[in-house]
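Attaching the record inline, Q. Sequence:
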Amino acid sequence: MVRSLRFAIISDPHIALPHTIVHTPHRFHLVEVSIPAMEQILRSLETQPLDFLLLPGDLTQHGERENHEWLVHRLKQLPFPAFVVPGNHDIITRDGDEHRIGLTDFPQIYGDLGYVRDRPYYHQELLPGMHLIGLNSIAFDETGQQLFSGFVDAEQLDWLSATLERLRGDWVMVTIHHNVLEHLPGQSRHPMGRRYITQNRDELIRRLRQGNVNLLLTGHLHVQDIAQEGNLWEVTTGSLVSYPHPYRLLTLTPQPLGQWQLAVESQRVQAVPDWPDLQITSRQWMRDRSQQFMMRFLMSPPFNLPPEKAKFYAPDLQDFWADISNGDSRFDYPHFPAEMQPLLQAFGAIDEAGNYQPIDNHAILELGQS
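Structure, as predicted:
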């Protein structure tokens, strides 16, 4: 029988060497902590018996070559393999420029971190009978500009189907930057949510189900959330540089009759030099920048409030996104109009029956057969 597999996830670290940091007044990301937080986590992980580390995209602040090179150098010092996939912050334009990498540069720079050929997707055997597939959801228009949301091209989809057929009977999990399942109500249709999901997710899901894939590992949304659609589970991990600065430890264990069990543990970076109260400071940082974000949210479906009403209610929702990011959230605003309350509650950790289901940070998931 295949043994258990233990691995860690650090998502969306947005690595930024100090002299590359871009200061903008409304960004939620605390990229100032990216390197000290990464170092702290890696020092802890290096003492543990891990099979590998996974980083599902947004590895750098804005695709800077020197930030990519810093991360590659650090990951190659680990006592276990590390695997990455590109995020929308990693390849800003298809061809890059003198300071930022392009699409063809990515698998070359990260050649020892998953990639075995020049294409930006790969298959790695983790243990006999256990595999990881890394997909690329970063796509570009005919002018080389990045598409607004994720997209998996036809050539890659066909490669995925052929690879899954070849591996049929083995356990296969897939990592990709953009979400494939919805982690927020109506995410695939919402004007603010579409940015974080794979455009052609229906076709991707069809291919995954044909290949008996049960587990997806994603990032991009900067929230702690676990979603399920039929027998397909997706674990998305929050950003290292956004509240609550999480990372995950996962253990995949074979069960009788070809079943699998996934134990999910989540940790947080509590403090780094110059940020001794990171959890408190970071939550306040997000709160201070929430007004315009929450106004856009309230003016969008399903609320569709006029600007003056959105401005009135937004201050009461200053912690709304921080609570979603933290995972396992519950929302109750009894002083809001009755028609708004269920719409807000739907963004909490509730199942299809409306029951509270706190599985976003710590969970035991029963997965199906491979």
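The CA atoms of residues 338 and 344 lie 11 Å apart. The mean pLDDT is 96.

More tomorrow.
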